[in-house]
UniProtKB/TrEMBL annotation:
<keyword id="KW-1133">Transmembrane helix</keyword>
<dbReference type="InterPro" id="IPR032808">
    <property type="entry name" value="DoxX"/>
</dbReference>
<comment type="similarity">
    <text>Belongs to the DoxX family.</text>
</comment>
<feature type="transmembrane region" description="Helical">
    <location>
        <begin position="67"/>
        <end position="86"/>
    </location>
</feature>
<dbReference type="GO" id="GO:0005886">
    <property type="term" value="C:plasma membrane"/>
</dbReference>
<feature type="transmembrane region" description="Helical">
    <location>
        <begin position="93"/>
        <end position="110"/>
    </location>
</feature>
<keyword id="KW-0812">Transmembrane</keyword>
<feature type="transmembrane region" description="Helical">
    <location>
        <begin position="122"/>
        <end position="138"/>
    </location>
</feature>
<keyword id="KW-1003">Cell membrane</keyword>
<dbReference type="InterPro" id="IPR051907">
    <property type="entry name" value="DoxX-like_oxidoreductase"/>
</dbReference>
<protein>
    <submittedName>
        <fullName>DoxX family protein</fullName>
    </submittedName>
</protein>
<dbReference type="Pfam" id="PF07681">
    <property type="entry name" value="DoxX"/>
</dbReference>
<keyword id="KW-0472">Membrane</keyword>
Amino acid sequence: MSATTDASRPKLMIPALGRLYSALHDAGETLLRAVAGGFLAIHGSQKIVNPFGATEMVEGLGFYPGAFWSPLLACTEFFGGILIALGLFTRPAAFAGLIVLLVTVWFHWVTMGQGFSGAEKSLLWAAILAFFVIRGGNRHSVDARIGRAF
C-alpha cells in the first residue's frame, strides 16, 4: 500500500491513462520480480552445477575459505533467484542477492578498477533487489498467498 494520496500525486497529462496505470501497477511489479528472480536463477544455474567452480574467484576477492563461499554464492544466486521469482521469502532472498551484488560492485569498481562503467550492471541489479527488500513480493506472490512475509 502506498502512503501517497490522490491529492499528492501529480495530475496526468492524459487522465484517461490513470485507469490503465492503476490496473497494471501490480502486474508490472510482479513482472519485474519474476524476471529479476528468473535471471538471477539462470545466472546461478552455471554455478549450481559446479558449486566449487568459483572457489579461486571468491578467494581472490578475500573470501576464505573459498570451498565455503563458492557453494554459498551458487545457492544464493540459484535458489535465491527462484525464491524471488516465486515471491517466497522475498525479502530475505532479495537481501542475500543484494549482498552478492554489492560485492560485485566492489569487485568491478575497486578491485578491477573499472569504475562506474564496470559496475553499472551490478548497481542496476542491486537497485532492483533493494526494491524487493523494501517492498516484499506484493499481492501476486507466494508470501501473500500464505499470508506471511518478513
